[in-house]
Specification:
This protein has 444 residues and is mostly helical. Helices cover 52% and strands 6% of the residues. A five-stranded mixed beta sheet has the order 2-1-3-5-4, with helices on both faces. The radius of gyration is 23 Å and the shape is globular. The N and C termini lie far apart (76 Å). The N terminus is likely disordered.
């Protein structure tokens, strides 16, 4: 019986659901890209980094500053795994589709795990709820982020934990150190969870590895690549007011985030030691002075989803009566679907071009391939593939050939591209395009 539980043969309904979710998320991402829907400039940042790896060089991100090595900002060398794919398809959509595939892998692992250990009905409810969970949807809406690699790793580590394959838990947890610098603390908590279930030696060893890994990255590696010799996000902990005051700021919003994160499992996750893994993420988010960290809109809840759903499966395996918790779990998940990113795929307007799409394509076509361009975040993601792109907030001493601004994006850009370019860079500039809120200036 035990060998049967450990079998990883595909179960067709599980596989089909994972593929369907992955396809839906890829479609949502690409459609948002095609419609020029603005999220942030993060996708452009990661595209420049992956392009550096694809060229067998350093992950240089000029958007953060001319010649800036992204390893001095966040430690995410795992994104180099996308380099072969980007070398074949050097477009923004490569990263968006890759993220959808990574989420699909995590959906398959967690759905299959749930079916094996809670039965078909409860397992299906959990698998569907995870595939539609707000953390995954919000992450897709925010475009590509490196934490997408953490979802399948945490799912696989969690599956090994539930099935008491503790050596595999360690094997799947350690690569998290290459996903992002804060995940060393999550690895530490995996060690604590192992310690709680009696795996004292392995637990202590993994906890120490996680703590040392985080320390080495934060104290040595990132500062060595950072022009300022430090870790830029350290100042966000507590901000100007201190850790306690920041922690107590907007308590309703933070409580909602915690309750919703646990509520998508019907609170069953609380009865497994695996739920301890959520603590480091909640900690850095709630003591950070960036209000975007506190809510459920961006990608910051992505890695919490595989954690709490694995914890729910573990709790239900230990206490079969807890399988009734899938009922409130499904209800909570259903409430989050109203107005969710995935629900926009059912909106006819999603499949139409917005009013300014033609103008956006036209102004981009006026920038020659390979040219250097300084821009705001309005069209940045669409320019990175075949141009050298700088951001107006960190252009430094760079001398771009073009300046492209989106006055209707609401990102506080200068009101006149030509005047800004002449003041910022000197020389003579001329207006090449000025329609529908887009302004393109060219150096003469």
């Amino acid at each position: 019986m035990k060998d049967r539980l450990l079998t990883w043969r595909p179960v067709w309904p599980v596989l089909l659901w994972a593929v369907a979710c992955s396809a839906a998320y890829a479609t949502l991402s690409v459609r948002r890209y095609d419609r020029f829907e603005l999220a942030s400039y993060d996708n452009a940042i990661f595209q420049q980094a992956v392009r550096g790896y694809a060229g067998l060089g350093w992950p240089i991100v000029d958007i953060k500053g001319p010649g800036f090595n992204i390893l001095g900002d966040h430690f995410s060398p795992v994104t180099a795994l996308l380099a072969p794919f980007y070398r074949i398809w050097p477009v923004a959509e490569t990263l968006l589709v890759a993220q959808a595939v990574l989420l699909g892998l995590s959906i398959y692992v967690i759905f299959a795990l749930a079916v094996r250990h809670t039965g078909w009905w409860a397992g299906t409810a959990l698998g569907v709820a995870y595939g539609l969970s707000f953390g995954l949807q919000s992450a897709v809406k925010a475009d590509f982020h490196e934490v997408a690699f953490g979802a399948p790793l945490l799912a696989l580590a969690g599956a090994a934990f539930v099935e008491q394959r503790y050596r595999a838990v360690i094997g799947w947890s350690l690569p998290l150190l290459l996903v992002k610098e804060d995940l060393g603390l999550t690895v530490l908590m995996v060690g604590v969870a192992l310690w709680v279930v009696g795996e004292r030696r392995r637990g202590v060893g993994l906890a120490v590895a996680g703590l040392l890994g985080a320390a080495v990255v934060l104290v040595l590696i990132i500062p060595s690549f950072n022009p300022g010799g430090g870790y830029d996000y350290a100042s966000s902990v507590g901000g100007d007011r201190g850790v306690l005051e920041t922690l107590l700021d907007d308590p309703g919003r933070k409580a909602h985030t915690v309750l919703l994160t646990l509520g998508v499992t019907g609170l069953a996750a609380l009865l497994s030691p695996w739920v301890l893994l959520v603590l480091p993420t909640f900690a850095w988010r709630f003591v950070g002075d960036n209000p975007y960290y506190w809510g459920t809109d961006w990608h910051y809840s992505l890695l919490l989803m595989p954690i709490v759903f694995v914890a729910a499966v573990d709790a239900m395996r230990r206490r079969p009566l807890l399988r009734l918790a899938v009922l409130p779990a499904v209800v909570v998940t259903a409430t989050t679907l109203v107005g969710s990113p995935l629900s926009t795929l059912l909106d006819g307007d999603t499949w139409k071009d917005p009013p300014r799409a033609a103008a956006a394509r036209e102004v981009i076509s006026l920038v020659p391939e390979g040219a250097s361009v300084e821009t705001d975040i309005g069209l940045m993601t669409h320019l990175v593939s075949d141009h050298r792109v700088y951001w107006i907030g960190s252009v430094g001493e760079a001398s771009p050939e073009f300046v492209l601004l989106d006055q209707d994006a609401g990102v506080g850009s200068p009101p006149d591209a030509v005047a800004y370019a002449e003041e910022a860079h000197g020389g003579s500039w001329t207006s090449v395009y000025d329609e529908n809120g887009y302004q393109l200036a060219q150096r003469q």
